[in-house]
Design goal:
The protein has a domain at about 5-85. The protein has about 130 residues and is mostly helical. The protein has 4 helices and no strands.
Length: about 130
């Protein structure tokens, strides 16, 4: 519990007593000072409550993040156990993609019109294969 909650509650009670004494004696100034002290104590108590709530939320978020990290580590470990060569296969596939992309890019940059015509021709042939001649 935040200390402001305790000190705020103490000030609040002090202000209530001071205000009651001022009310009983008819001293308006003492009564007003008591009310101000009570209000300050209430505000201080609320600040302490807000700090406690923020601390609780931060603790819960930290726990949730820790649990999520554990789940992610477990999933990664399970994936690596089931697919031990997955990293290498991915690297090889990525290398093949990059080299193929570089080779095609070179031809397209040298002769863009021929590349366009070839793409149209391949598309037409795929259309024939998929839909056939009707």
């Amino acid at each position: 519990m935040d200390e402001k909650r305790v000190t705020g509650e103490a000030k609040k009670l002090t202000g209530q007593v001071e205000g009651a004494v001022g009310g009983l004696t008819g001293d308006k100034e003492t009564k007003a000072e008591g009310q101000v002290t009570e209000l300050r104590g209430t505000v201080e108590n609320l600040v302490g409550q807000a700090k406690d709530a923020a601390r609780d939320i931060a603790d819960q978020a930290s726990q949730a993040a820790g649990q999520a990290g554990g789940i992610a580590r477990d999933a990664l470990r399970a994936g690596r156990e089931r697919l031990p060569d997955a990293d290498e296969v991915y690297r090889r596939g990525n290398d093949a993609y990059r080299s193929g992309n570089a080779a095609v890019r070179g031809h397209v940059e040298e002769a863009p019109l021929i590349a366009l015509l070839a793409a149209v021709g391949v598309g037409y042939l795929l259309g024939l294969l998929i839909h056939g001649r009707d």
